[in-house]
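Next comes a concrete protein, fold included:
___
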Amino acid sequence: MIDNIVTELKQAKQPQSDFVKLMDSFKNPYLVLIACILSLRTNDKTTYPATLRMLELAKTPHDMKGIKAEDLAKAIYPVGFYENKAKQIIELSKIIDEELNGKVPDEIEELIKFKGVGRKTANLVLSLGFNKPAICVDVHVHRIFNRLGYVKTKTPEETEFALREKLPQKYWIDINTLLVTHGQNVCKPTKPNCSACPIAQYCKKVL
């Protein structure tokens, strides 16, 4: 079933948000990390221009650590918790530059040591930044896999570990982008557009 689901979603070529396209284009673990931090509890339409404004100030840990928190906060406003996120990004940039020789860790256990970085962000850094097999489970991935009946879990973290056991590793990197795009366009939290869903035939519609 999962092979068919992935194939159908790829062939559907649903429109991606500008932020999703931006994240997929980075191929840089540091940029993925700080952009993902901005995106937490903020929609893509707000996060995308905020990320571009942030990158006008700095694109490396060395340069970012020298930015004033109030200047970064002003640039990323109105993302959620923008003042806290500005301080967080500057703090982790300083750690990366001064303690890690400018290199972002490529292990989940090391990434989640950063203040405010959870497994979702860590997995996205590994998959998009390092091209390493990792399953980034956000609200879309969690909701859709449960709605399909592919897993039966209560939290995104439970979903991640369930997928690690069940989902073929060849799909780990791509699945987040595919399901985020599907969740934004068709399989929404409320009133999913099942009549337009390319994978409706495989769905158990667990609502």
Notes: The mean pLDDT is 97. DSSP finds twelve helices and no strands in the chain.
